[in-house]
Structure prediction request, 301 residues.
Amino acid sequence: TVAVALAGDQLNFNNSLTARVCKLAANTIPTVIGFSTATDLGRLQMQTATRSRIALSRGGGSSGGALLMTGGGGAWIDPVGPGNSPWLINAAHRATATVCVKTTTLPVGVPIRLSFNLKQLSTGTAGLFANVNFRVLVNGTVIGQPNYQPSALSPGSGAYQPLSFNITNFRNGSNNILVELQSSVNRDYTNGQGDVNLIDDLAVEVGVVVGLGAESAFAQGVGVFPNPSTGVFHVSLDHAGTRTYALRVTDLTGRVVRTQQVRAAGHADAALDLSALARGTYVLHVTDSDGNRVVRKLALE
Prediction:
């Protein structure tokens, strides 16, 4: 049997009768999705089953909103032990959110980075980590950990963890990159109770990936207050040594609306005045002279 890739097929390894293509018009580089409005959901292709749900969340510790991927309760088999992968059982509890990004405008070899913040919550008996499962696929290939599970199990616990991946090699001569966020969750999440994957500040853009440990430490030293703000945001930068920071603000289409440079030794506070912009959600990209990077959502009221 010879497999022939169909025109526009994003999954190079599937059969010659099935083509996986992008939904409508693809997002372009850079793609930044803050999950603040229904328009953000319209940029995704979403697939749910009888016991799963995808929605926007206004809580969960996010600023302005997050993508909520949760379950529906009942008929759940604990995915523990050999042969019980969460991606082979509990099909009724699985959900997938897909974003397609067009890369035709980029020269070959330009580094492409996927990043987002992930928060996982499970309430109930301690140790039930397997109630919440999450993984990432790019053009049909699992990247990062084969399965992400929560590390804290009480209501409202846990924190957003920044995840970043080098997806440059997934172009494979293709015009598009297909990113799939997959969730397998036991119970529905309502009013702070249940099981959930929360995804915030998803970005597909040109850039390199720094070490996750360094990135996490860098992220902890970047704060924004007040947020929401009526115009002026204060960006707190708290890192050892002398560094130059590039602050870049984009709207949700990826258009750059403000840039600013800050040089600081140790701690510094930078005032970011967005009062001339229309009210809405914006994305702040902070990069230092060592290549560390973090993304923060800004709510302008």
Q: What stands out?
A: The chain has two domains: 27-206, 212-300. Residues 1-19, 152-156 have pLDDT under 50 and may be disordered.
